[in-house]
Amino acid sequence: MDVLVVVGVGGMGETIARRQAVGRKTVLADFNEVALEATAEKMRVDGFDVVTAKIDVSSRESVERVAALAASLGPVAQVVHTAGLSPTQAPLAAVLRVDLVGVALSLEAFGAVVADGGSGVVISSSSGYLTPAFTPEQEHLIGTSTPEGLLDLAFFAPEVLGNAGVAYGMSKRANRIQVQYASAAWGDRGARINSVSPGVISTAMGRQELESPSGAFMRGMVEMSGTGRLGTPSDIADSVTFLLGPQASFITGIDLLTDGGAVAAVRTGRVPMPGR
Known about the structure:
- The structure is a single chain.
- By secondary structure, the chain is α/β, with parallel strands linked by helices.
- The protein has one domain (3-199, 234-258): NAD(P)-binding Rossmann-like Domain (Rossmann fold).
- The protein is 47% helix and 16% strand.
- The chain is built from eleven helices and seven strands.
- The protein has helices at 11-20, 33-45, 60-73, 92-111, 136-144, 158-161, 164-188, 204-210, 215-224, 233-244, 262-267, and strands at 3-7, 25-30, 49-54, 76-81, 114-123, 192-198, 255-258.
- Strands 3-2-1-4-5-6-7 form a seven-stranded parallel beta sheet, with helices on both faces.
- The termini are far apart.
- The mean pLDDT is 94.
């Protein structure tokens, strides 16, 4: 039986897991053991074959242990990394460890066990489209650094970033570069890897951000976007399902912005960036 791995069981993680888990053994992994077991039990009641594993995505040992567990259960056909911390949830250092280093560790560990024909998706964020671009030299350093070495790069130094919000946006922009570079290693195993950048999504994390100091800007983006609404976990699951599936067999190393047109509203001047 093929194996599905979903790292992070929040609103998007659970929705994606339910969408992809039919006919597969599913490994759910999360740092919050209470939420992890509650989600797993609900899925088991609904007939899904679920195994749980606690994971700290900022720890190489922890991520590699979950990757080894998944590989021991069967061919690892699909991997979805949804774990992340928002600026209102954690300080700058923790955001970098989870959103930047955690993605790098997962790409490396699961890229070493994914099956031929397999596919993966990293959940990033549309905030990465609203942060300053990296230079080509910086992109190369991000793509070729070891996961732990990312924190030694001068442009990710806390004194350079300044606050958790900037660290979050820069980490999410870096995720797209990490996926591009990882696509070669995954391709060597006959597998694909992509990312999805959600906009403002109606999850617990999203609603918390809407109540933060940046909430007014986020609401403005939503109101002036082409769709004029918040996203739902199902919207993101639709994008993930496409990228994991056979219709995307010629797509790897890319990011799919799934934001209802919010970034377009900023880029076209319908919503001014804060401080401008």
